[in-house]
Amino acid sequence: GMLGDSMFIVPALRALRAKYPHATITGLFSPKGSIILPAMGLLDGVLDAVKTYDVYHPKVAKWAVGRFLAKQSFDLLVNFDIDPDIYRFLLDKGQFAEIWRMVRGTVADGTRQQLQVAVGDCPHIAKQYTQLVTGELPDSVSYLIPEIRQDIQKKSKKFQKDLRGKRDAFLVGIHPGNHSQDTNTLFQKKNFDPRAWTRDATIGYALRIATAFPGTKFVLTGGWYERKLTRPLLKALRQKGLDVVDVSGKTKKITDLMAILLALDVYISGDTGPMHIAASLGVPQIGLFFSTNVNDTGPLGDPLKSCAVISPIPCAPCLHTPHEKQCPVDTNCVLELTDKVAFDRSQSFIKHFYEKAKP
Asked: Which phi and psi (to 5°) does residue 246 adopt?
């Protein structure tokens, strides 16, 4: 899965290690998962090996993973992915005495002893993953990093010093895009990406924050392909007289992004991977939720450092993902969440951390 999806399995993997302390556990991850989780230290002491599992890309990737699976025999397959093609691929290439897997509805396969847990809209998907391992739905789950690496802390202090400047600015990060290259800044009405806000709303929200909290400096984050979103946003915010810097495309390593997020006082993002990274670091974050469900995919960090701003539209969350991009009604949840509504719902949250940063 993507960044957030990869992080959701962390509580389940911790539970698996606790259940089988002497087992040899190998993780098969998407390319992003195989990079981010070890880099963040979330799997320290949990997995014995990490392999990249990428069946959606070149045939050589399938061949390499298939070769790896064919050479070994496993006592147990714990499959957190509900994609039937991936499941068939694993069964075809690997040898597993027992299988535990996530399913939609009641899918049965009598060829092996299987434990199945159905995927639902709520509770949180990470709780469902953990239930698959423990047999019980946990009261709470978390992917908080127990101890942040020293090199990341050192780099973060340097970033923070450079970003704050002589005026000791209040640092507010904004992530205007997501893993998709299409957002509402390009599409309107029925065609939309339900994890990214509109440019106008983002500008209005930033103006309200800057007015209410003097000395605010905005930090725009994003991948290299999201610079087509951050560059015009940077220009527009500066034209409004706001203090803003764009670091999108400059965080080539996941540890660089972690260091920048750790330097921030507050981070604003849609339901995206960077929001979950911020939560895992204990960074105060404001999550904007449109068609996705905060109870299903919300951040799993410190609840006192998390503020969910949910679209007021009655049909949200409908769970129409960015892969569909078709809103079934005349308006959409992204446009219904105005900058005023978002600010009213998050002002006290921002004020708390503003006062902590600028006593």
From this structure: -110, 115
| Cα–Cα distance, 268 to 173 (Å, whole number) | 6
* CA distance between the termini of the chain: 41
SS3 state of residue 301: coil
Distance, in Å, from the CA atom of 161 to the CA atom of 163, rounded to the nearest integer, reads 6
Give residue for tokens 């064919």. Answer: 70
Mean pLDDT for the chain?
84
Give the number of other CB atoms < 10 A from CB of residue 142: 17
Q: What is the pLDDT of residues 231-276, one digit of tens each?
A: 989 999 999 999 999 998 888 788 999 999 999 999 999 988 899 9
Q: Which residues contact 288 (CB under 8 A, 6 or more apart)?
A: 197, 268, 269, 270, 271, 309, 337, 342
Beta-ladder partners of 99: 77, 114
Identify the residue with better confidence: 164 or 331. Answer: 164
Listed residue (14, 252, 20) closest to 144, CA to CA: 14
| DSSP 8-state assignment for residue 264 | -
Reduce the DSSP state of residue 73 to 3 states and report it. Answer: strand
Task: Give the model's confidence band at 187: pLDDT under 50 very low, under 70 low, under 90 confident, else very high.
Answer: very low
Sort strands 95-103 and 285-289 into parallel, antiparallel or unpaired.
unpaired
Alpha-carbon span 332 to 311, nearest angstrom: 9
Alpha carbon of residue 248 to chain centroid: 17
Instruction: Tell me what the mean pLDDT of segment 101-116 comes to.
Output: 63
Residue with tokens 């009604």: 329
C-alpha to C-alpha distance for 55 and 47, rounded to whole angstroms: 21
Q: Which of 77-86, 184-193, 346-355 is modeled with the greatest confidence?
A: 346-355
